[in-house]
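My hope is that you will study the protein record below before we discuss the fold together.
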Amino acid sequence: MREMNLRRNKVFFQPKREDFDKYIVPCFSPAPFILVKGRGSRLWDQENKEYIDFASGIAVTSLGHSNVKLINALNTQLNKLWHVSNIYTNEPVLKLAKKLVELTFADKVFFCNSGAEANEAALKLARKYANEYYDKTKNEIIAFENSFHGRTLFTVTVGGQSKYSDNFGPLPPAITHLPYNDLKTFEQHISSKTCAVIVELIIGEGGVIPIDPFFLEQVRKICTNYDITLIFDEIQTGMGRTGYLYAYQEYNIVPDILTSAKGLGGGFPIGAMLTKEKWAQIFQPGTHGTTFGGNLLAATVAETVLSQLDYEMLSGVLQRHDIIMNELIKLNKKYNIFQIIRGKGLLIGAQLSSIYYGKAKKLTQLASEEGLLILIAGSNVVRFTPALNIPLDDIYEGFQYFEQAIIRFKDK
């Protein structure tokens, strides 16, 4: 029977959307179309319908689809060497590590395959650091309500949205969630038992909520005073997304550990944990590891992405931010659909007015029917994360489609 099935599989197979329901574990509920080709900030589906992309794979394809420089770099490495184990090192990962260290606060880098893995490494490192320098009672991790830090059991517990951790218990202990931007509550809760604080500089999945600069400044001071490891989760805000290489650089407030992924690989899976020397030395051989982290192909692409994030590119992010905000404000004056519009750089959220609460997903579905791909950040916020280099004409055309979607949305 197995041999007959193998022979049958050799017959030409044209995947359809219903095949997802037939073959894939239903963790996701994808759109009714299948995307097959991309170029810049444009995508095409199986029916050759064209879309303008304001989503970028959730802030991942930061330099657009089929970026020529990334393709050329990847092809060069494909013809040389794909993978070696971490028993050895390799040139691409060393080049990438050097560049990240030179451009940030960090002294050392650990590479992995995703944002969740980067956060997992950071949280493990923070706990081990406290164990090494203090004692086992200093183990509490503080995170913030509505945060999101990944899907491993550890990171989903640290994330401040219980809907992602419900029914997976027993969950890792000694994790506390506090209100975001609430300094008084934070100050009251901190104790000698706190070993780490992990914070997003913009809450992403939980609604696109920027951090209060004064709150961030005080968190840094308190962590220093109490010997607490401060972790910045810059999975979504990093790699030019806010108009800075990493968002912390706008505030000139430095963490002890920073996590990066998404835009780091421009679409190729890679994650990184950046840290200071004192913390880095806690992870000695055998304490933590990965099979694919530091992969030659991923490192090659990431180093090429990083090389393109120059002053001109980052300035262009701020220019595009202003255009998108202005377009959203104009639409809101016309249709009164949003309660608040917020964000930085090209991570922007538009929170629906109360009469439309819970309907953000519906608006994104209508937008895709019109030819525009956008995201949600919770059930009430529409999220915009286009490529950092999206052509200005694509922005204006995309908002024409978005206006048509809003008109249909309001009529329903």
